[in-house]
Amino acid sequence: MTDAPPPAQPAYNQQPAAYGMNGATGPAGSPSTGEDPGRVLGIVALVLAFLFSLAGLITGIIARNKSKAAGYSNGFAKWAIILSIVFMVLGVIAAIVLVVGGAALVGGAIEQACQGLEPGTYPTTTGESITCP
Length: 133
Fold this sequence. Notes:
This is DUF4190 domain-containing protein. Keywords: Membrane, Transmembrane, Transmembrane helix. The protein has 133 residues and is mainly alpha-helical. It has helices at residues 39-51, 53-69, 75-113, and strands at residues 120-123, 129-132. It has one domain.
């Protein structure tokens, strides 16, 4: 019967490896630096929220999902998503106000141009025609 050789001794001032450890510093898939992988993208999303709301919203969602998958909470991404939605809603409201206001101005200008004229179509100085009611 042969005896197995004795286990190798660790080098001087070196601790032996614990059972099941292979030098890894954390669970599989975790970042080795301990930083949030979506943090920088969250900051970019926050800046984009002020400049281009749709791009800020998409980037914020991606950053939040990256952080969430790594087990982090990303405040920058959260605020980018919130602000992007708020700015997009305000943009839609402003567009509606501009369209309605522009239509009212055009209607008022036509009404003023037709003042004192009988119903019919009249040419303008720019070559267009105005139809008066």
